[in-house]
């Protein structure tokens, strides 16, 4: 990897900050804690609450997993190596998005694919 020591340290502290933030949020939205609060009472409202808490939890869990991958990639010295094409990920991209695993080109290609699938399911080429 081509990051210098200062860049690696910056990336590591960014990831550490993100880790603490996600950990705090995961604790706050722990669906199991909500389960304990829901007694027999108003089932509908409880279901909605649990559903929201669960999607929030899953969202943060996905963030958590990409954070774990980013930290592993940093410790293996491949934090700035694109997982698709093996090309370099510019440091200014990692500064903005420390859990990025793809270079700008591969990320753009991926998102273009996603948009075709999600926004335009009937498009034919
Ligand atoms: Zn790439």
Structural summary, described in words:
The longest helix is centred in the middle third of the chain and has 33 residues, at 43-75. The model has no long low-confidence stretch (mean pLDDT 85). This protein is mostly helical and 125 residues long. The radius of gyration is 19 Å and the shape is flat. The termini are far apart. The protein has helices at 5-28, 31-37, 43-75, 91-96, 104-119. The chain has one domain (5-119): DksA, coiled-coil domain (Four Helix Bundle (Hemerythrin (Met), subunit A)), CATH 1.20.120.910. It has five helices and no strands. Zinc ion (ZN) binds next to helix 5.
Helix content: 55-70%
Helix-strand pattern, N to C? HHHHH
Q: Under CATH, the topology is which?
A: Four Helix Bundle (Hemerythrin (Met), subunit A)
Radius of gyration: 19 Å
Task: Record the SSE blueprint.
Elements: H1 5-28, H2 31-37, H3 43-75, H4 91-96, H5 104-119
Short description:
The chain has helices spanning 5-28, 31-37, 43-75, 91-96, 104-119. The chain has 125 residues and is mainly alpha-helical.
Q: What are the key terms here?
A:
125 residues, mainly alpha, Four Helix Bundle (Hemerythrin (Met), subunit A), 5 helices, flat, binds zinc ion
């Amino acid at each position: 990897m081509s990051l210098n020591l200062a860049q690696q340290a910056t990336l590591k502290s960014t990831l550490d900050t993100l880790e603490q933030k996600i950990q705090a949020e995961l604790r706050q939205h722990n669906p199991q804690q909500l389960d304990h609060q829901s007694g027999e009472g108003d089932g509908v409202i409880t279901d909605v609450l649990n559903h929201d808490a669960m999607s929030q939890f899953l969202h943060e869990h996905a963030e958590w997993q990409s954070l774990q991958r980013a930290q592993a990639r940093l410790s293996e010295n491949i934090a700035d190596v694109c997982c698709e094409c093996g090309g370099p990920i510019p440091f200014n991209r990692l500064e903005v998005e420390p859990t990025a695993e793809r270079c700008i080109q591969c990320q753009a290609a991926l998102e273009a694919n996603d948009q075709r699938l999600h926004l335009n399911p009937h498009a034919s080429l």
